[in-house]
Amino acid sequence: MKSNVKHVTILCLKLQMCASCNSVEKKIYVHLNYTVPCVRLLNATHQIGCQSSLSGDVGVLHVLESEENLDWVLSSGPNPPYMVILESSLFTRSVMMKLKNGSSRVAGIVVVAPNTNPVEGFSPHTSCPNENTGVYSESYDPTLAHCNVTVWNPLGNGLSYEEYDFPIFSLKDDNDTQVIRQCYLNHNQAVNGSSPRYPLCAMQLYSHMSAVTDTATCMRRNDINFSISPEMVCDPLGDFNVWASTRPLNNTEKGHKMWEKVVIAAARLDSRSFFFDVAPGAESGASGFITLLAAAHALRNVTQEAQPNRTIFYTFFQGETFDYIGSSRMVYDMENNQFTVDLDNVHSVLEIGQVGLHGESRLWLHSDPVSRRNSSVNEEVRKLIENLQSAAAGLGFTVGEAGFSQPLPPSSFQRFLRARQIPGVVIENHQLNFTNRYYESMYDNAEYLNVSYPPNLTPEEQLKFVTDTAKALTEVATMVARALYVQAGGAENQQDNINADRQIVSQMLYGFLVRSNNSWFQQLIPSDLTSHLSKPTNFYVGVNQQSSEPTLLVQYLLANLTGSAINITQENCQNQREDENDKESKHVRHETGFCVRSTVRLSRAVSPAFELRDYTSKDYSTWTESRWKSIKGRIFLVASHELEMLTLGVGVGVLLASLLLTYIISSKADILFSSGREPT
Ligand SMILES: *[C@@H]1O[C@H](CO)[C@@H](O)[C@H](O)[C@H]1NC(C)=O
Ligand SMILES: *[C@@H]1O[C@H](CO)[C@@H](O)[C@H](O)[C@H]1NC(C)=O
Ligand SMILES: *[C@@H]1O[C@H](CO)[C@@H](O)[C@H](O)[C@H]1NC(C)=O
Ligand SMILES: *[C@@H]1O[C@H](CO)[C@@H](O)[C@H](O)[C@H]1NC(C)=O
Ligand SMILES: *[C@@H]1O[C@H](CO)[C@@H](O)[C@H](O)[C@H]1NC(C)=O
Ligand SMILES: *[C@@H]1O[C@H](CO)[C@@H](O)[C@H](O)[C@H]1NC(C)=O
Ligand SMILES: *[C@@H]1O[C@H](CO)[C@@H](O)[C@H](O)[C@H]1NC(C)=O
Ligand SMILES: *[C@@H]1O[C@H](CO)[C@@H](O)[C@H](O)[C@H]1NC(C)=O
Ligand SMILES: *[C@@H]1O[C@H](CO)[C@@H](O)[C@H](O)[C@H]1NC(C)=O
Ligand SMILES: *[C@@H]1O[C@H](CO)[C@@H](O)[C@H](O)[C@H]1NC(C)=O
Ligand SMILES: *[C@@H]1O[C@H](CO)[C@@H](O)[C@H](O)[C@H]1NC(C)=O
Ligand SMILES: *[C@@H]1O[C@H](CO)[C@@H](O)[C@H](O)[C@H]1NC(C)=O
User: Fold this and answer.
1) What is the pLDDT of residue 254?
2) How far is ligand 1, taken at its centre, from the CA of residue 455, in Å?
3) What are phi and psi of 400, to 5 degrees?
4) Which terms under GO biological process does the entry name (predicted)?
5) d(CA 52, CA 626)
6) What is the mean pLDDT of the chain?
7) Which end of the chain has a smaller Cβ tally under 10 Å, C or N?
8) In the structure, what pLDDT confidence band is assigned to residue 664 with cuts at 50, 70 and 90?
9) Is the CB of 19 under 6 A from ligand 3?
């Protein structure tokens, strides 16, 4: 009986609180149109990212002018909590950590994205990317673990890996932000140190996240929820790797030892930034995979005419940013006889990393000092390095060998080395730490790679325009292609016939970094998928059950660049595509209706931790992304202080009355309830 009464009291209290929050007068009421949130991600042990409360967080706008000005937000301002508007120059670790520490007075943060990149550089990533899931563990070589020798990303401030218990959004510096600034100037600015008067301009941000704590917790809740309703709280990060080979491989025959060896040519596809849907990855991803696509194209004719003895296996890995999801899965599949190629068949690995030249004329070859202690591995690595150096002869740059005692930079090849000592080299534009000043940030974009066009060109003219960046990457692709051919056992005298196409490189740079909705990409991909094409591609891996835009684009591009068009009917093309036993994949090209025959295939890029249901795995990526219902933001004026006090007064009055009522009911409960129950 008594506990029932308590329930009534609590219910009354809740009603009172909502009565006062609903009565806040909203004079103007502007919805923000282009909001980019930071979302919650979880791994085996932590949650990172941002979230609002279920009903959105409300705060009085405060445009932060300098770091000293933080005092207003954190202690002196009279109207907390505040919604802090940050110019990008103040989006630093020091400011963010102070705001995080003072989160009781901070309702949320809005970062205004600038229209030009900050010259001093910015990387919200860690300074030692994928520190614990590469090959350099304590057991492999303790002197090389934890970026002990080289800190690859010294500018990394780690903001992307912090947890915030308020929402953080990004807005483009445009009309939306102008409305916000104006609202702040008109209503909230403190004049001569006096506190601003009501009504005040406030903002509400919604980004409530369903998942909490860590991946094991949210996967358990998924399982529980699934038995009741198919409502998930989080999903594993994942997508598809794209691969192709110069010789058709029987895709139904898994894990067999082939007579021929394969040379793996790898690049990574994905990238990320602090915010959910801006990950341009120009240098960190695109420079490498565009180079590899162009190299594959340059090798099409020569590998058809004079097939070298080893097969070249092109692969584009997804999810590498999050503890090597794509490469760890492929290696896992190889080890478990679930993949077309077996680890025994791998001859060597050539990986293309960040290769934007930025006007420099030097590239660096990185290799693993530990496996090179084995003399046969060392011999193969040395040959591959010589091979690359002679392939670069006559091109516009030189290639040097990075220090012999330095470990590999973060790279997919590390996951192969974890399984076996395989000879291999990673090509980068840096000898020591990254030259990329915007690693895994929203500024690693076309502007940073110097992909820009003379004014007044139409989109069609821009697509075709050959920039200096395109010229440089074309040369890199030529070197890669020539080296791969020799590495596969091809004749060295063929090298002059292998040249990458600068027109194709230009078009890829435009398509991936400037506008994917262009006439070329529209021709390549099936018509039902063209509607997804947008602005610059977002390379964040996401939680895709079907392949995402970057995966699709690379898949169809690779088919176009390495395959051949055959004149058969659309139905035949469709039928043969579904034939899984086929050695080749086929798809219909949208415009001409031609059938394209190629060896391009997709393979699942979801971490083996989720296959094994080992959500606390130390070997495999455990990253999941929380689900959410709505992401939105709006600004409005909150009512005058007097009105609010009045509302509060009425609320308190009603509350007292109800408490009194509850007290009377509970003290007379014996009389009120039990007498009726007693059988007479
Ligand atoms: C965090 O805030 C508390 C007061 O709320 C303060 O005493 C402490 O020094 C702050 N810590 C940092 C690291 O700023
Ligand atoms: C790297 O590791 C070695 C051996 O553990 C240690 O002696 C050395 O001080 C470390 N160097 C740095 C820069 O931490
Ligand atoms: C990064 O490397 C360059 C040389 O490549 C060096 O001058 C610079 O000091 C390094 N930066 C850091 C922060 O270590
Ligand atoms: C999970 O992420 C956090 C934050 O980046 C990191 O400190 C921790 O080591 C990660 N846990 C595992 C098991 O990788
Ligand atoms: C932004 O505002 C200006 C003038 O107020 C207007 O000319 C322009 O069309 C607006 N842009 C957008 C995208 O609404
Ligand atoms: C968002 O778009 C709507 C409709 O297009 C417009 O009325 C509103 O003013 C826009 N919001 C801002 C902040 O510009
Ligand atoms: C602020 O102070 C200055 C001088 O102290 C004075 O001239 C000005 O009128 C004041 N402004 C307002 C709005 O009170
Ligand atoms: C592929 O391998 C399977 C299983 O070994 C075999 O049945 C099939 O005939 C092969 N297909 C081709 C085209 O060689
Ligand atoms: C490849 O061969 C085709 C015809 O077989 C020819 O049209 C094309 O120009 C060749 N490409 C290169 C790069 O040599
Ligand atoms: C490649 O294979 C052919 C025929 O099988 C053989 O004659 C040749 O020696 C091989 N080349 C190399 C480099 O192994
Ligand atoms: C690739 O695309 C180009 C232009 O879109 C087209 O002319 C060519 O025939 C295509 N090649 C293949 C093999 O599909
Ligand atoms: C394709 O084949 C059909 C008949 O098989 C033929 O009529 C047509 O001209 C061919 N098209 C091309 C472009 O070769």
Assistant:
1) 81
2) 51
3) -115, 165
4) Notch receptor processing; Notch signaling pathway; protein processing
5) 13
6) 88
7) C
8) confident
9) no
